[in-house]
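[Meeting: bench + compute handoff]

Bench side (C.D.) handed over the final construct sequence. Compute side (W.E.) agreed to return the predicted structure before the next meeting so the bench team could plan truncations. Sequence as handed over:
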Amino acid sequence: MQKHIKSSLFAVRLCAFLLFAIAPCFGGAEQVPPQGLVVSSVLVNPKEYTANGGRYDLFLQAVPGGKVTRLTNHESTPKLRLGGAIREPLFSHSGKRVLFLADYSYSDGRRTTMTGAAPYPNTFLNLWEVQVVTKKVSPLTKGDFGWYVHGWSPDDRYVCATYQTEAGSLDQDKPIPEDIYVWDTLTRRGRKLARVPLGVDDAFWSQDGSSIIYQSGPDSNLYSVPRQGGKSRLLLRGKAGRYGYAFSPDGRKVAYVDTDTVYIADADGGKPKAILKMVRDQRSAYSPKPRWSRDGKKVAVAVFEPTVNTQGVTKLHVYDKASGEDRVVTTLRQGVSDLIWSRDGQWLLLKTAQEGDTEKPDPKTGWHTFRREGLLAVATSDGHAVTLKEPNEETRGLDWFEVTKQDG
C-alpha cells in the first residue's frame, strides 16, 4: 500500500508537469485547474456508534480523478485504540503528514456517563497524526474535555491546539476557560502557553512562527503569546461582532469581518477601511474568514446570502488592494466553509458542504441526516468552476494540498 501512495503522489506530480508543459501550446485558451491531494474523513460503517454517528476513516485522493487510498484503519492497528469519531484532517505545509481529531476506542463506553445536556462536539476528541507515505498513526494528546486544532507552525514541527479545562454542555451559560498548547511533533511533548478565562474564539500562528495569536472575550480582542512561553499581550483591541482576523503575508495589514462589513486595517487595528458591505436584513448574510493571496495583493471573501424558501447563494468576492476594486468572481448556489488560494494566485479552492435532514432514511446509511463535503476550484479571472471532489459521500472534514511542477 505504501507503493500505492507513492505512485499517487508521483501521478499527481507528473500530471502537473504535463499540464504546465502543454498549456502554452494551446495559447492559454482555458486555465488548467490546480492539481493536488485531498484528504477526507469518510464514513465506513454507519451502524457502529461514535460521536460522529458512525465509524469514519481517513482517505487520500489525487485530484482531479486520481486513485483513492485509505490512510487509517482501526482494525489494522488495534493496539493504538483509535476510535471511529475521526474528523477535521489538516495537511502539514509539506503535505507529508496529516493532523486530525479522533477519540480513543474506549471513549464511547464512557460517553454515557456525561451529565447534563449533550456534551460539546469535541468532547473526548484528541489530536492524532498520520504519516502520508507510511500510514503510521500516532496519538499526540489525551484528555476527555475536548481538543481543538488551530494549525501547524510554518516549519511543520509544532502544532497549536486548545483544550477546555472542564466539561461543558450545549446549554452552558458561561464561557469555559481554555488552555493554549503547543505540541512538539518530534518530542511528542506539549507546552501550555496560557490559560484564557473567557475561552478561545480563534487562534493561529504568527507569520514567523514565534508566537500564537488568539481572539478572546466579548470585545473580540486579539492577543499574542510567545511559542516558548511567557505572558500574553494585547495585540489589537476589537469590539463586539468582530471576527475572522487574517494578517497579510508581510504582517503589516489585517483583514476582518465586523458584523456586516469586511475591513482592512493596519496591523494594530488603526486606519480601518471598509472593502465590502454585506446585505443586512432579517436573514443576515455572513462570511468565513477573509483570505489573503500569497503575494498580499488581493483578499478573497465568500459571502453567504440566505434567501427565502431556497438554499441561499454564496458570492465569491476578490478585492484588489492596489486598485481598491471589489469584484464578484462568481455566485454559487451552495455554502462554502473555507477558501484557499492556489500558489499562482489564479484559482480559489472552495470547501463546499451539503447537509440537512430527509423524510426517508438514506438507503446507504439508514440515517435521516446527511453531511457531504466537496472541493471546487474557481478561476479568479472569469469565475468558471471545476469540481475537484464531488460531495457524494458522508464526510466529517477534508483538506487540500496543492502539488506543482516545482514539487516534482
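W.E. noted at the follow-up: Residues 2-22 form the longest helix (21 residues). C.D. will use this when planning the next construct.
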